[in-house]
Specification:
GO terms for molecular function: phosphoric diester hydrolase activity. By secondary structure, the chain is of the alpha/beta class. It has 16 helices and 15 strands. The strands form four sheets. Strands 3, 4, 5, 8, 9, 10, 11, 14 and 15 form a nine-stranded mixed sheet that branches. Strands 1-2 form a two-stranded parallel sheet. It is elongated.
């Protein structure tokens, strides 16, 4: 017989959100039966080929697979974007509820004995979860509409409360066959419909969306074994990338001051070293017209003038400081305020931090060594020693972390200043997995010796933090076509097990921030610290205090 849900579980359904994203594809075949794996059993099955860690719905589909609700298709795919058909949806609910049913003769001529999902369909008919169509058919391969799926759940869960009459959708009339089910879902906050206030009962629902819904149901029914536990975060590291270049022109006094006034945990910045050993705060090793413009030569008839287009390592501090930087808005940041001035020295930034009394704000300083073209920046040892000398001279050791894509620089920091925390940056490509020999970026490590495992390499390096790109393309976001997350739950969990924090860069989309925070990352580097503050506020996290 059908398993009724306990009252506590039904009450808990009030907290569940029903996905409302419209489907985009249609399945033409049905998956094989789920097999004998029972919910809660240890999962040894390999991931579906189209459900790799970090992909959309990964945890939900993995839960479906490991619970024995689905084994996917014969080609080892799940097809998250495909519409789920009526036979599949009935089988999913049947397997999840552990229904025990022995069918008799077939109720529907198009779902005969021995056909795929026959037992589940007959169970659904016997329990009056479905009565089929007016012509007596079930149409098992027809895509399930949102309204239909609402009714399947409503009838299977058999709620004891009537739907609230003050909840309505303009496109769901009282005469709609699925009205009561849809209104019940809405009244219990299981489904709130679309942002335009509609429910779109006739739209299909995808297999990925169904996986998410069912796994969330299970989280309520089995609260001691949630499928996607939220990681407690007592303090989240909000890092303002280049001072928060979405708000002010990058790496300027004003950008860093504004970030301090807004309230951040960390100022993230890049450094370069001039020909005479000065440490300046700037990202690019070559001076570009996008960031700076020439004003006048540092000395009459200077053969190196104009300086735009030259490498900073080939110019002296006097030459560099004739430049006017931050003079124009970056078109990538339409709301960016312009703050014009000479290129900052690192010690000037230390002064700004002290002026604001921001003694609890960290500085995440990148040594911008170009390991792939070492002649374009100061030599590694020269670079690292110059940065460390500034930190020590100004007694900033307690407020500094050193980050670098050049892991050889991080090894040198460990040798020269072992008490400073270090962060290993990567864009993924610099690991050069599967390529002959060691990458020049990894300080002598060969990624293939670690099977390309970023966390294992970070352990070998001994760093406190890994700082990977959030995904690709770098300016993409969760939900974009073609976007592939790089950071995933396995990476975060493995890092935490090794005592390593995970702080992805550079994340400007609130939805992607939410995704990463759901994985349990320890911080985020962003061009928009105001956006990240809002996401943190919405999640109930403590916000960094404004300085000054």
């Amino acid at each position: 017989m059908q398993r009724k849900l306990p009252a506590a579980a039904l009450a808990g359904l009030m907290t569940i959100g029903f996905l409302a994203t419209p489907a985009t594809a249609t399945a033409t075949t049905t998956p094989e039966p789920a097999g004998t794996t029972q919910p809660g059993a240890e999962c040894t099955a390999a991931n579906f080929a189209d459900n790799q860690a970090g992909s959309q719905y990964f945890d939900y589909v993995r839960w479906m697979q490991c619970s024995g609700i689905t084994t996917g298709y014969a080609d080892n795919t799940y097809r998250k974007g495909a519409d789920i058909d009526r036979g599949e949806s009935m089988a999913f609910v049947y397997r999840y509820l552990n229904a025990d049913f022995t069918p008799g003769e077939a109720t529907f001529p198009d779902a005969p004995a021995g056909s795929t999902h026959f037992e589940a369909i007959e169970w659904g008919a016997a329990e009056e979860i479905t009565t089929g169509y007016a012509d007596g058919t079930f149409q098992p391969h027809r895509a399930v509409e949102r309204g239909e799926f609402a009714s399947f759940l409503y009838r299977a869960l058999d709620p004891t409360t009537d739907p609230e009459t003050d909840v309505s959708f303009p496109d769901v009339a009282e005469s709609n066959t699925h009205h009561d089910a849809i209104i019940w879902l809405a009244s219990e906050d299981i489904s709130t419909g679309y942002k335009d206030g509609t429910f779109k009962a006739k739209d299909p629902i995808t297999r990925g969306e169904v996986a998410a819904l069912m796994s969330r149901l299970d989280t309520v029914i089995n609260p001691d074994n949630p499928e996607e536990p939220e990681v407690p975060q007592e303090e989240f590291d909000l890092q303002a990338h280049r001072g928060g270049q979405g708000l002010y022109t990058e790496s300027t006094r004003e950008s860093f001051a504004h970030a301090l006034e807004l309230g951040v945990t960390t100022l993230e910045l890049d450094t370069q070293v001039t020909a005479d050993g000065a440490v300046v705060v700037t990202h690019d090793r070559k001076i570009t017209t996008g960031d700076c413009r020439d004003t006048a030569p540092a000395m009459p008839e200077d053969p190196q003038y104009p300086y735009v287009g030259k490498y900073i390592t080939d110019l002296t501090l006097d030459q560099v400081q004739t430049l006017e930087c931050g003079y124009q808005q970056d078109p990538k940041y339409p709301g960016q305020a312009v703050a014009t001035g000479p290129m900052m020295e690192l010690d000037e930034l230390f002064e700004v931090v002290r002026e604001y009394g921001a003694d609890e704000v960290m500085l995440n300083i990148e040594t911008k060594v170009e390991a792939g073209a070492p002649e374009e920046t100061a030599p590694r040892e020269t670079f690292v020693r110059a940065v460390l000398a500034e930190i020590l001279e100004h007694a900033m050791e307690d407020q500094v972390m050193i980050q670098s894509f050049d892991w050889g620089a991080l090894e040198l920091v460990e040798e020269l200043a072992p008490t400073l925390p270090r962060s290993a940056l990567t864009n993924g490509d610099f690991l050069q997995v599967g390529q002959p020999g060691a990458s020049p970026w990894l300080g002598g490590l060969d990624a293939d010796d670690f099977d390309g495992d970023l966390v294992a390499m970070a352990q070998e390096l001994g760093v406190e933090v890994i700082s990977p790109v959030h995904g690709n393309p770098q300016d993409g976001a969760i939900g974009d076509e073609g976007y592939a997350p790089y950071v995933n739950r396995t990476m975060v969990d493995d890092a935490h097990a090794a005592g390593i924090d995970v702080i992805p860069w550079t994340v400007d989309d609130p939805g992607t921030m939410e995704y990463l925070m759901g994985l349990g990352v320890d911080g985020i580097i962003t061009d928009y610290p105001d956006r990240l503050r809002q996401v943190m506020r919405d999640r109930g996290l403590d916000l960094p205090q404004a300085a000054g």
